[in-house]
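tokens incoming
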């Protein structure tokens, strides 16, 4: 199986059947090959966050199928979806959402402990990831003591802590100033390539999108020519 992610015929409507219903996705088809990094561009409100949530098993479509690493996720119960998400999917958001009471190292260790990884192994993996993004020296600092760019690098490491095959990112550098955004995005791309991930990364920044393998554009709930 050459594809990491296959999305077919995905539809999603909020408040269905009501006067204020919103048809967010209208028959989305999207394929992501193994090792491919794809930019998802879209105007605000076009449905990119909804699409990412459905692709990452955080939300359920009204119709259509989601296949990850050759396994059809359609109809899975909540427990199975959660297990698949923890093991196979990494998420990065615009805001880092780090746990403020824990150090950078601990923030990267915790997802592994939730997957029953032994403490020593989890700490070694966390330190290796922090070293890859150039902030291992800040491992014992809490988020409040880190810069915005450093916090987001920790969030990258946390997303990859459990070795997912698929990475989904929603404006991962959108909360940073332009200069920091460029630097941190380059770190993300290097990390993704080094880990051999397939990644779908939503961004409004066309310069960042151009650094990826391919650009997919979403508009009015449908994939349109980029």
């Amino acid at each position: 199986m050459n594809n990491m992610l296959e999305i077919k015929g995905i539809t999603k409507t909020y408040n269905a059947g009501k006067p204020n219903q919103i048809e967010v996705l209208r028959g989305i088809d999207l394929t992501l090959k193994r090792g491919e990094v794809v930019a998802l561009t879209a105007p605000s409100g076009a449905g990119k966050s909804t699409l990412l949530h459905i692709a990452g098993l955080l939300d359920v479509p009204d119709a259509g199928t989601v296949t990850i690493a050759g396994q059809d996720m359609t109809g899975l119960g909540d427990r199975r979806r959660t297990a698949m998400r923890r093991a196979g999917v990494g998420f990065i958001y615009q805001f880092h959402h780090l746990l403020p009471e824990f150090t950078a190292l601990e923030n990267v260790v915790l997802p592994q402990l939730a997957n029953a990884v032994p403490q020593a192994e989890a700490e070694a993996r966390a330190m290796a990831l922090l070293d890859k993004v150039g902030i291992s020296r800040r491992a014992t600092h809490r988020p409040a003591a880190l810069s915005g760019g450093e916090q987001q690098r920790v969030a990258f490491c946390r997303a990859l802590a459990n070795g997912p095959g698929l990475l989904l990112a929603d404006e991962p550098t959108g909360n940073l100033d332009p200069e920091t955004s460029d630097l941190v995005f380059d770190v993300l791309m290097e990390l993704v390539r080094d880990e051999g991930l397939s990644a779908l990364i939503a961004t409004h920044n066309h310069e960042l999108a151009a650094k990826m393998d391919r650009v997919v554009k979403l508009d009015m709930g449908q994939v349109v020519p980029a």
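note: The helical segments are 48-55, 78-88, 104-114, 119-132, 148-160, 178-195, 206-209.
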